[in-house]
Amino acid sequence: MTQRCTVGGELHGPEVPLCPEHLCELVPHAPGPGDTAHQPGGDGHGPGEAGSGPDGTAHGPGGTAHEPGGGGSGPAAPVTTCWNCGTPPASQTSTECLDPDCRRPLTPPAMLVVFTYGQVEIAPGGQAELGRHGAFGRLFRSYPNVSRRHAVLGVDPDGRAWVTPVPTPNGTFVNGDEIGPVQRSLASGDRIRLARDAEGTVTLFPRQRNRTPE
Question: How far is Cα 22 from Cα 72, in angstroms, rounded to an integer?
């Protein structure tokens, strides 16, 4: 029986327990009339199908890469490990990490930015102000050239992540390039730097759900 990934739509054989790319559940796939999807092991795609680029990144019909956490469309991926420490859940209905040093909710934030002295987690529709003052001031107090209010991070309800600099003489940078005081979209792997040295790395997560019994 052919199985289909609930996130990317890839097809797999009956011996595969989880989608190896998305680590999510597989559901039975029954090809319908005119279905041109390739069986497991195929190397092509029919007209208008989702394909993948040379790096394995999923692409839609228009060839645009789908970034983790972007768009908010399609079924949510099931939680198979803790996003923070990688510990598997205790059961299909677990909502909190088992690791006593973690204990994070198993549903990840939409965006995680890891700086040297801590991390910033933002849920869909949320935002956070970065700088030496405020809720995340402890992350930047060792950087005197970071302003008290330096930049704002946010994630739209549809999953689009962004950063907006607050006008400051020492600048806000994305991947080494200084950006002006306008909203700049972010992707997984982007590097955000406040002033000269306070740099963090962006991770965007796809929507996930806690697993429930069949």
Answer: 15
